[in-house]
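Posted in: Structural Biology > Protein-Ligand Complexes

Title: Requesting predicted complex, Phenylacetyl coenzyme A in pocket

I'd be grateful if someone could produce the 3D structure tokens for the following input. Sequence and ligand are given below.
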Amino acid sequence: MYTQAMDIPNTDGPTAVPAINEQAREAEFNERAGRGEIVEAKDWMPEAYRKTLVRQISQHAHSEIVGMLPEGNWVTRAPSLKRKTILLAKIQDEGGHGLYLYAAAETLGTSRDQMLDALHTGKAKYSSIFNYPTLTWADIGVIGWLVDGAAIMNQVPLCRCSYGPYARAMVRICKEESFHQRQGFDLLLALSKGSEAQRAMMQDAVNRWWWPVLMMFGPHDKDSQNSELSMKWGIKRISNDELRQQFVDATMPQGELLGVTFPDPDLRYNEARGHYDFGAIDWSEFWNVVNGHGPCNKERLQARVDAWEEGAWVREAALAHARKQAARVAAAAA
Ligand code: FAQ
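-- Reply #1 --
Done. Output follows.
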């Protein structure tokens, strides 16, 4: 906990005591973060730490709820009742992840309305991956296997993030993501044992999703403007490039089991490095998508705005109900 050694006197009143030098307070914070101590919502924290956490957690929350849309596209067309129930459960989990994350960001003093407004007005980012279309049923398997697989790789270290509410939310999220990854792999395993057309559909989906999935980890470390501070504060524990490499290494044997190839002629095991080498990522595509010009950006944002507007009556009804309940409790107490 960060508060004990930092009992800062109240400086608001007439008996105000001069605040401890900001720099010294920040230095102490940095030292504690460096030791791996956990920061809680009411602890003192530098404004920049609070700001970057709100930035990352709210973007993460937006990614979860926007991420429901590409898969939602296939609920009515799942090939069996079993696959439909699995898909529904997965999509609901993603909605739940968004809620845990919005709640974690709210502990930093930002309201859910503010965060959603930033999403709806296009000011907030969400993961680039959800701006690609789901064209076939195999895309649902590939999202589970590769997109959730990449998400787990990135999110397991976040369970050790220095900010307690975020780290605790991530523990549960990672458990559920693990089910998501397995259901995707299981779906693809079924396709791999199917007809020639089903195997071709799976290969086509891998070809389309592979590069966008590698982009999920963010820009190269040298171009990652937030990494230095996030690593110093223990928000990020492993860099974008290291996580991307871990993901490629873990995925290759799984691809072999499914009998798929990857659309990268430079992808091969490098004995000397003990890792897979892979080709250059097209960063112009990445920034194009991040800046709102991907294949589905407009459609995704519009779907969220429509859901918000069409759900207004539910929020109003819930608030009216809460007010009525509160009035009843107050009347009973009187
Ligand atoms: N898309 O300086 P860095 C999921 C932005 S959840 C869009 O390296 P940072 C589950 C970045 O924000 C997937 N923007 O940034 C699921 C920054 O801009 P800013 C989401 C991106 O924060 C599965 C700028 O580029 N996961 O998949 C992306 O240190 C299936 C420079 O980048 C998380 O959010 C991108 N891919 O590292 C749901 C995990 N990459 O903010 C449904 C938490 C970078 O300065 C279905 N987030 N940018 O304006 C993180 O770990 C980090 O924020 C990174 C980026 C690693 C994403």
